[in-house]
Amino acid sequence: MSSGLKALLQRDLTLAFRNRGELTNPLVFFLMVIAMVPLGVSPESKVLANLAAGMIWVVALLATLLSLDSLFRNDFDDGSLEQILISPHPLYFIVLVKVFVHWLVTGLPLALISPLLGVMLFLPDAGFVPLCLSLLMGTAVLSLIGAIGAALTVALRKGGLLLSLIIMPLYVPVLIFGASVVRTAIDGFPVAGELAVLGAFLAMAIVLAPIAAAGALRISVNG
Amino acid sequence: MSFQFASLAEFWTMAGHGPYVWACYGVAFIVLAYLLIAPRRAHRQYLKQQRVLKVASENLSKAKPSQAK
Amino acid sequence: MAWQWFYRMGSPRWFYEKTDRWIPWLALVTALLLGTGFVWALGFAPADAKQGNSYRIMYLHVPAAFLALAGYYVMAIAGAIGLIWKMKLSDMVMKAAAPIGAALTFLVLVTGAIWGKPTWGTWWVWDARNTSMLLLLFLYLGVMALQNAYQHQGTADRASAILALVGTVNIPIIYKSVDWWYTLHQPATLKLTSESTIHVSMLYPLFIMIAGFYCFYALVLIFYTRLEIVQRERRTQWVSALVEGAK
Question: What is this model's ipTM?
Answer without folding.
Answer: 0.88
